[in-house]
């Protein structure tokens, strides 16, 4: 299902084959938790060049529910998006007190924030849900600890995640749907090593590095990534879950990561953050009031071609919400275009040059 085509130092370029076509790695997935990327339609995603998104299986199980998804013949038809869709298992909700009731060896008890109903999700139930959704890539149910949890607690999460992963693989029968295992271990090198070896020993279609982006900071984040990757097979895709700032994506690719997802791009777009080749800017700052340049001089998106910083600043000041959509479109396009440049540098074995130039410019 995955073919590694090019490498440049540790950066990789490959082809992931799914039931909705082939997709070139590395790639970034905007988060569409409820089958919608905020302010961006399915048609917009295609025009931006976004080839993959990620949704949340447990949230979709709650609303709109599996019966409606069945009637629509799967989530692709329901949202009219015929590119690649990943579904997360719902493990991320374990970090939220609004969802989590309890965890034990059998599974996890969730509380619905919609109607306060309780739902006990086992690995078997989770696989049933994701196969009904008909996503291209399903994730195993994992026990995601918090960054501040103790060593013993995170060690327990490594053990339970492994046991759940075995059960997920046993009952997953949809041969057209890829199944990825998830590696845990917090920021502890020995636990990252142990979890990587355990999960990779189960021979999934791909492997995800989970449990990061939870407040550990950039230094510990990238150490944990390296501590996971060195024990992961080279012939399978590597997915870093929940990480989406531009520097972290670029550094992740430098460390050998193939796939990323995060709400960082769209969420920060709605909080005045604009990505440029020189770093992030805050478009609500008064110094942009008379700036008649595009958001980014080198960007070819329609926002940069048609509008100026001064105009978008004006929209913010008059509380015209169109600005949120324009900035979101630009930032998603920016990330997609940047990764395309990275792929070109990998093909030409010039990633090291790209990386040095990027880190010099980005502030």
Structural account:
The chain has 363 residues and is of the alpha/beta class. It folds into 2 domains: 2-262, Alpha-Beta Barrel (TIM Barrel); 277-363, no CATH class. 40% of the residues lie in helices and 20% in strands. The protein has 14 helices and 16 strands. The chain has helices at 42-48, 57-62, 66-71, 75-79, 123-133, 151-171, 189-200, 217-229, 246-254, 264-269, 302-306, 309-317, 322-347, 351-361; strands at 2-8, 11-18, 21-25, 27-30, 52-56, 84-88, 100-103, 108-111, 118-121, 137-139, 178-183, 206-209, 238-240, 259-262, 273-276, 279-282. The chain has an 8-stranded parallel β-sheet. The chain has a 3-stranded antiparallel β-sheet with strand order 1-2-3. It has a 3-stranded antiparallel β-sheet with strand order 7-8-9. Strand 7 (100-103) and strand 8 form a beta hairpin. Helix 7 (189-200) packs parallel to helix 8 (217-229). It is globular. The chain starts with a strand and ends with a helix. The model has no long low-confidence stretch (mean pLDDT 96).
Summary?
By secondary structure, the protein is α/β, with parallel strands linked by helices. The chain contains 14 helices and 16 strands.
CATH topology of the largest domain, which one? TIM Barrel
Question: Fraction of residues in helices?
Answer: 40-55%
Instruction: Provide the CATH top-level class of the largest domain.
Output: Alpha Beta
Overall body shape: globular
Domain module count: 2
The strand count comes to 16
Biggest beta sheet summary: 8 strands, parallel
């Amino acid at each position: 299902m995955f073919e590694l085509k090019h490498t440049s130092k540790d950066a990789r370029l490959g082809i992931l084959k799914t039931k909705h076509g082939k997709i070139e790695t590395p790639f970034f997935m905007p988060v569409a938790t409820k089958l919608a990327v905020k302010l961006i339609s399915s048609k917009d995603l295609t025009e931006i060049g976004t080839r993959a998104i990620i949704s949340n299986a447990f949230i979709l199980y709650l609303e709109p529910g599996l019966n409606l998804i069945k009637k629509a013949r799967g989530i692709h038809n329901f949202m009219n998006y015929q590119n690649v869709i990943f579904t997360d298992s719902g493990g991320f909700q374990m970090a939220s007190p609004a969802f989590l009731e309890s965890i034990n060896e059998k599974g996890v008890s969730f509380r619905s924030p919609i109607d306060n109903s309780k739902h006990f999700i086992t690995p078997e139930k989770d696989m049933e849900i994701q196969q009904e959704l008909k996503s291209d890539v399903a994730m195993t149910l994992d026990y995601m600890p918090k960054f501040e949890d103790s060593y013993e607690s995170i060690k327990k999460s490594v053990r339970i995640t492994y046991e759940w992963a075995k059960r997920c693989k046993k009952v997953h029968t949809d041969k057209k749907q890829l199944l990825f295992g998830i590696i845990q271990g917090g920021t502890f090198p020995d636990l990252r090593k142990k979890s990587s070896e355990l999960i990779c020993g189960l021979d999934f279609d791909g492997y995800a590095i989970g449990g990061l982006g939870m407040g550990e900071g950039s230094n510990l984040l990238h150490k944990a990534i390296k501590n996971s990757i060195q024990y992961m097979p080279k012939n399978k895709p590597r997915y870093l879950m929940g990480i989406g700032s531009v520097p972290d994506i670029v550094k992740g690719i430098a460390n050998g990561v193939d796939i990323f997802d995060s709400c960082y791009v769209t969420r920060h777009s709605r909080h005045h953050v604009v990505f440029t080749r020189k770093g992030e800017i805050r478009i609500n700052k008064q110094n942009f009031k008379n700036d008649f340049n595009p958001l980014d001089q080198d960007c070819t998106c329609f926002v940069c071609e048609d509008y100026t910083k001064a105009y978008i600043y004006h929209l913010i000041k008059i509380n015209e919400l169109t600005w949120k959509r324009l900035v979101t479109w630009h930032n998603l396009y920016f990330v997609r275009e940047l990764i395309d440049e990275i792929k070109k540098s990998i093909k030409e074995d010039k990633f090291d040059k790209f990386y040095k130039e990027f880190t010099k410019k980005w502030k």
